[in-house]
Amino acid sequence: MYSSPVGVVPKGDTGKLRLVVDQTAGEFSLNSMIPPNQLGYTKLDDIHTLGEALLAHRKLHRDDELVIFKSDVQDAYRLLPMDPLWQIKQVVTVDGQRHVDRCCTIGNRWAMQIFNAFMGLVIWIATKKKGITDLLAYVDDGFGFDRAGVQLYYKPYDEWYPAKQVRLLWLWDELGIPHKKMKQLFGAKLTVIGLDVDPNDMRVTISDDRRADLIAAIEAFIDRPANGRRRHSLREYYRLAGWCNWVLNVFPLLRPGMCELYAKMAGKTSIHAQIQVNSALVRELGWFVGHLKTADGVRMLESTEWEAEEADLTVYTDASGIGLAFYSPAHTTGFQSPLVARPKKDGDSDIFFFEALAVCSALHWASTLNPPPRRLVVFTDSDNTVAMNNTLKCKPAYNSILLHTCDILMATGIKFRAFHIAGVDNVVADALS
Fold this sequence. Notes:
Blueprint: E1 6-10, E2 17-21, H1 47-60, E3 66-72, H2 84-87, E4 91-94, E5 97-100, H3 111-129, E6 136-138, E7 141-147, E8 151-154, E9 159-162, H4 163-175, E10 184-187, E11 190-192, E12 195-198, E13 203-205, H5 208-222, E14 231-233, H6 234-247, H7 259-265, E15 274-276, H8 279-294, E16 298-300, E17 313-319, E18 323-328, E19 333-338, H9 350-367, E20 375-380, H10 383-391, H11 399-412, E21 415-420, H12 427-432
Parallel strand pairs: 17-20, 20-21
Antiparallel strand pairs: 1-2, 3-7, 3-10, 4-5, 6-7, 8-9, 11-12, 12-13, 13-16, 14-15, 17-18, 18-19
Helix pairs in contact: 5-6, 5-8, 7-8, 9-10, 9-11
């Protein structure tokens, strides 16, 4: 028989506690029976998804006054029964008495994926069968927006709510999904996923307190203790990565500051394993914190998808075995530099590094123009370089380039995209390199 430890953890900033079962504890823990390579992944809706929906609505209804709404499912994971063969393993001990836990529980490796699969189906029914447009979900929170003043009466709570929100509650009632009145919120400004959203000014704001909490957590993580050895468990790495990912909703250009953090977690499965904090991780998280401290904490919701023809300036770049170059047709100007020796790591590619450096160099030059371009497009014949710059993700060997790229973008406000061009069409930059 298995009996997992039971404990409590703080429930956000509510001052309440949440009961958790640690199914990772012990040599033969329940979570150890779930192979890591079977873990699923669900892309949760976030502020970026909400922003895209708001932008699409604004294109059609520019002057609409909007409200944001949010509805919370009560008990969430506990609504879902587990397979009977798994239930008999979920034994908890309270006051010496054994109890079989028949429901999905926080602490199970698959719990979030199980609930997300269920909630995904509910949202699909809401959007496809009930016609509730632009409805999103983040775990147990359903959220969206509606026109101000377009309301319906919800009799069980004796309240008027946005029409879409009431239709969602009607669906939950039809499906038997419980909820509480105090968790059904709406307003011209509303906190969604811990961030303050204003759909009329089209901006997202992080509070000073939440930002200060994250800064303190990162600094404690990378601070060198008295014994000089900085180590944290894989669980603590996961926790910090999740927290940093959350703040990317407001500061998306900070993503390169997490490159080494993910590299340290890669391939590791033991949640209690101690992982050393190396100098590269300290440097990147220090960069992350530095920008967190100085940024204004407001993100304007604007489209990140625009075409090359909409750019104010277009530059072509290339690199070869002997040099790198970039060329601006608008200025009939090109720049060239011979390659220099550099330290290499295993799996590091010289040509990829210098292709990426050529793009970064073009951005650096464009940022010195007076005035700098509002939108900049850089063409390169390297698919990897295009992906690296548009996703802000790369291997640690190339991440220093991305860090500098994002430094420039945050300092200047330039909107930047990289596009691919066939090598045979990249004539001038190719000749210069």
